[in-house]
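>> Question from a student workshop board

For tomorrow's exercise we were told to take the sequence and the ligand below, predict the bound structure, and bring the output to class. My setup keeps failing. Could a helper post the expected result so I can at least see what it should look like? The ligand is NDP.
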Amino acid sequence: MENHASIPKQRIMVQAKAWILPKYFDGFPKDSDFELKVEQLPEPKDGEILLEAVYLSVDPYMRPFSRVRMKEGDVMIGAQVAKVVQSRNPLFPEGSHVISRSGWRTHTVSDGTGVILLLSDWPADVPYSLALGAIGMPGLTALYGLEEVCQLKAGETLLVNAAAGAVGMVVGQIAKLKGCRVIGSAGSDAKVAYLKELGFDQAFNYKTVQSLEQALREAAPEGYDCYFENVGGAFSSVAIPLMKPMGRIAVCGAISTYNDTTPQTGPFPHLTMIMNQIRMEGFLVGRWEHKNKESLRRLLVWKQEGKLKCPEHVTSGFENMPAAFMGMLRGENLGKAVVKA
Ligand SMILES: NC(=O)C1=CN([C@@H]2O[C@H](COP(=O)(O)OP(=O)(O)OC[C@H]3O[C@@H](n4cnc5c(N)ncnc54)[C@H](OP(=O)(O)O)[C@@H]3O)[C@@H](O)[C@H]2O)C=CC1
Ligand SMILES: CCCCC/C=C\CC(=O)/C=C/C=C/C=C/[C@@H](O)CCCC(=O)O
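>> Workshop helper replied:
Here is what the output should look like for this input. Compare the format with yours to find the bug.
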């Protein structure tokens, strides 16, 4: 009689889907750059959890980071809000929600490394998706870029581009809360109208203005104390010479360059930076990770007090991840772009 004890326990398999990048992007991403993979996941071992994606983030950083954080054939990087559907780890109770950097996957078996429980008192009326946006990494980016890098002060004038996006919109609202004058640029008239509704002092469509320099000069004839840079490229070549003496530039991103196959070269405003003693500092949001808990609380309180509006651009369906990502890069989003699994 066969000893059944010797037959390995059939591990229950979960069917998971994942988007992989077989080859690095070359220029602007296209549908054929992505491949959908189906994988069978074993049930969690002792100490492990099974996560099911609820919302997944699509962010600009994925374009440049894919070359430095991924090998060809890897699952696309990214963060998601996930539900713990099975747990053999007491730190992550079944039914709890977490932020996980699992990438573009529907399900993940994890030992909990890098997995963060959402704030324990996450309000019932606040969508979990905001944990990927204004009450998450983009919101923190805005807060740290303004407070730690720009060191923005009341009464100063701030310029922010990609202002109707996940980071830019939080930048502008926090700057208004700090008693500053805020100028924003965005790529559609609808976005510009929304920014003005939000309380931006001036907003303009950089795609349709006759002259970017003229639009920037008219918006702030005295110049800019702080410039929150999300776009880079030609925009910054025009904006930097319009900084006030002792101005500060927080270099957050350069999305106008991410899909370039040949690097842009532009006028180099170094002399004006010297003469005006401009400080220009690149930063990554992770530098202040030690402050995240208190910072997320601040952002959440502003949201609950109605002082921080958090619009989202939600795409439904995991199968639409590539479309959501490419749409965000094309400027289709007003607010944070997320995918509802
Ligand atoms: N340093 C850091 O730690 C972090 C940096 N970032 C950076 O912040 C910036 C904004 O990110 P995020 O808020 O998540 O993204 P957004 O939600 O703003 O979406 C990207 C937006 O960029 C704009 N855009 C795209 N291409 C161009 C272009 N060629 N010229 C001008 N604008 C363009 C589009 O809006 P529009 O309609 O205005 O064109 C698009 O909606 C990015 O540069 C990103 O890399 C983000 C998070 C962390
Ligand atoms: C390869 C050069 C990249 C230059 C910087 C490009 C864009 C700036 C930017 O958007 C940075 C975003 C940082 C986001 C950080 C997110 C973290 O929560 C997780 C990042 C994933 C990882 O570090 O593997």
